[in-house]
Amino acid sequence: MTPLERFAAYAAGSPVDRLPCVPIVGNTAARVIGVKVGAFRGNGKLIADAQVAAYRRFGYDVIRVFTDLYTQAEAMGAKVAYPGDETAYLEAPALNDPMEIDRLVPADPFKDGNLPHHLEAMQRAVDAVGSEVPVNGAVTCPFTNASFLVGADRLARLMLRDPAAVHRLCEVSLATNLAYAAAIMAVGATPSLTDAMSSNSVISPRQFREFSLPYLKRLIDFIHGKGKGVTLHICGKTAGIWQDMVDVGADCLSIDNDASLADAKAAVGDRVRLMGNVHPSEVMLQGTPEKVREATLACLAAAGDTPKGFIVASGCSLPTETPFANIDAMLDTVRDFRPSVPLIQAT
């Protein structure tokens, strides 16, 4: 089966050759074509070449165009550093003073920063292999993007001292998200949502519901309105907000390795598809193929029979230097897996 055929059959409760599997390949794709990560900056063709080559090399089930979390914040004025062969990092937020929030304007995804190059990469990937595999474009969600606009420490203080300012930041971030999501769908790809700073490891469930959830819901409602499903990844510990993540409309929850797949299945597996959660560093980067096999089997044991479906995946994006043999080991383990119960309930 092609990935698109596999997903369609799986969603319908029809037989599939294997479970979907998505080792979340980001900048590891650079290694597949022998280039440095820094070469991706401003080069949509190279990003597409790398991601398509990685998909063809490993045979996983989703291409996700992603280089770093900061593309939208950079397009709104944040300063991002690009080491020659490492993942980009935030060098300075867009604002030095919260009093300047009202001068922020939403990014134009066709003109600002590296967003046009990422859109080009998605378009090229769709043209090359979109008839057989889903192509996703990573979207950094409103609250997390807001933290890059003013800095995480300052945002934490604003939540306590000036909640209205946080909401203004999230509004302008949401406007960028909506424009970027629309552009992603216009080129034939699907937005994939990532929201690192909404983690229970960073903010409380109460703060999530006040500052993040309303904007996530509006973003997800917009994507659903265009006929697309939504995968939502929130890093770290998320058990305290799993119900909220489902209520907000996510169709698939990507569970970080810091959380329990078994607990997630028990809590929300009858309501939403789950995805995860082999450790990207301890297992995929530093482990052996046998350790990857053991960890993948543990994920399958924990969640392979999730009523609404399960995608075997890494808990987050893979480190750049992840050995190819370990990615192969995850895919091979899933190919060899033979469940003793039906994989999914038809909906």
Automatic annotation (TrEMBL):
CDD domains: URO-D_like (cd03465). Residues 2-336 form the Uroporphyrinogen decarboxylase (URO-D) domain. It holds the Pfam family URO-D. GO terms for molecular function: uroporphyrinogen decarboxylase activity. GO terms for biological process: porphyrin-containing compound biosynthetic process. Gene3D superfamilies: 3.20.20.210. InterPro entries: Methanogen_methyltrans, UROD/MetE-like_sf, Uroporphyrinogen_deCOase. This is Uroporphyrinogen decarboxylase family protein. It comes from Geomesophilobacter sediminis.
